[in-house]
Amino acid sequence: MTVTERFAEAPGDPYRYGVYLRPDPTTCAAVTAVTGQLRAQYGLVSAGAFPPHATLIGSQHITAPDREIVAAVTDALAGVPAFDVHNAGVRNLGVGFVYDVHHLADGVTPNEAFVNLAARIDKAVAPLVTPAPNPAEHRFDADTFRAHLSLVSHDLYVRPDLSGEVEEYVRGLPVPFPETFAGDTVTLYRTRSDDWSGRWWNTLTWEHRHTWRLPG
Where residue 197 falls among pLDDT bands split at 50, 70, 90? Predict the structure, then answer.
């Protein structure tokens, strides 16, 4: 089956939508510095293929027009204030490494404002999601949700032999970042890949579609 034939099975392919919390500019610059270094040194591109972000919902197959997505998220964000986000620094998550922004400053207590925000967005967008033939389902689960800023991710499924070396490299980079930032910027992006079932990061492109600012 050709790429064209496979994507013809689902209207709207090869596009997906994600709603993200955008960090402050200094933290975004830190993420970009790390992912840029990893691309330059090791050719790792999956985390850097996206704009710096913490995923609220990701890779959603939606065929509704943008205005319906924006309206649904706008309703979900009504009355939601900004909140403090604590960056605990580099941590292992799955096969990759991230800035851990899931917990409060004590490093133990989940940031409930972050978890609740992701739950709100998922509930709002879920009625607009349609089945797609290829990617795994990406739905919110409070028990497994971990707010994070990706530094290196899916490439290490292909190159697990680099994991230890990459961790040492990332931890050795002189890239400062704020310990806290305001969680006040929510963004909608449309992403595209030629093959969501495979190494999607090699062909990923994205478009910014909308930004919301949380009060306070």
Answer: confident
What are the tokens at 4? 């064209």
Side chain identity at residue 183, one-letter code: G
Q: Identity (one letter) of the amino acid at 123? A: K
Q: Which amino acid is at 3?
A: V
Q: Assign 3-class secondary structure to the chain.
A: CCHHHHHCCCCCCCEEEEEEECCCHHHHHHHHHHHHHHHHHHCCCCHHHCCCCEEEEEEECECCCHHHHHHHHHHHHCCCCCEEEECCCEEEECCEEEEECCECCCCCCECHHHHHHHHHHHHHHHHHECCCCCCCCCCCCCCCCCCEEEEECCHHHHCHHHHHHHHHHHHHCCCCCCCEEEECEEEEEEEECCCCCCCHHHCCEEEEEEEEECCC
What pLDDT, on a 0 to 100 scale, did the predictor assign at position 133? 64
Sign of the alpha-carbon torsion through 77, 79, 82, 87:
negative
> For tokens 């739905």, what's the residue?
139
Q: Which amino acid is at 46?
A: S
Q: Tokens 């992701």 label which residue?
A: 118
pTM of the model: 0.90
